[in-house]
Design a protein that fits this description.
This protein is an alpha/beta fold and 262 residues long. Helix content is 35%, strand content 23%. The chain has helices spanning 2-8, 17-38, 61-70, 84-92, 169-177, 188-195, 223-242, 244-251; strands at residues 41-47, 75-81, 98-102, 110-111, 118-126, 144-148, 162-166, 183-187, 206-220. Strands 1, 2, 3, 4, 5, 6, 7, 8 and 9 form a nine-stranded mixed sheet that branches. The chain is elongated.
Amino acid sequence: MFHTLLSAQPRLKPLGLSTLAFLLFAITFSTTALAEKNAPKEIVIVSEAWEDATEKDGTGLYFDIMRKVFEPLGYKVKTLTTTYSRSIYLVQTQKMHAFLGSYIDEQEKVLYPYWHFDAEQVSAVYKASVIPKWTGEESLKGKTVGWVKGYDYNEYITTSVNVREVKSRRQGLTMVYSDRLDVLIDARSEIEEEFEQGYIDRNAFAVSNVTDLKLYPAFTNTTEGEELRMLYDQRFEVLLKSGELQAMFDEYEWDYFPFQTQ
């Protein structure tokens, strides 16, 4: 009787290879989908390489600020350094999410936030024989003035000048030194860094301040860029009011803190 009952039980068919393959695929797909869902979102930020601000290895104050803004929101921040003009191109063509160091409304096809992350002194480098007495921006009138391609300083000075873009700061300084250019305009910090390389006589030049310009990140002109801009402004204000931003500037021994905290 017992043997008969056992014999009456239906036998399970072994799974075929195709069924096993399908189950394995389903499990793998589900696991991968879950991992992708839980993985941090990625934002790629591109910039020209600036000492202590946007280093090639991903360190620097500006890159650290971006991490402090976005990583607590679940983003993984990746960085890339290239020329300034290429940084602009990569964001305008939506290949990267944001570039750093732009002046407000400097470029088209990008989105600007409310908050700047720094400000720079824009200075003029020239020979004293070309401008014997500096009287401000009006001293540039009628001069042949150069700057690194992509910076578009003509948008921020009102004096009429003859513009000549250069490929690099080295080229610009060399042209001023050899009297092929009257004035080179650039950020004061970048000018001093260039002098420190020692390839040209610092004493041959005078350096005077032209204006101060705030520096912004510029985001892609997309729905995602709109969201990133909104998140940046929200988080940046939190960092500013909490004192975390000031602490970062202090840690890097930055020249000055371009924000009112009162």
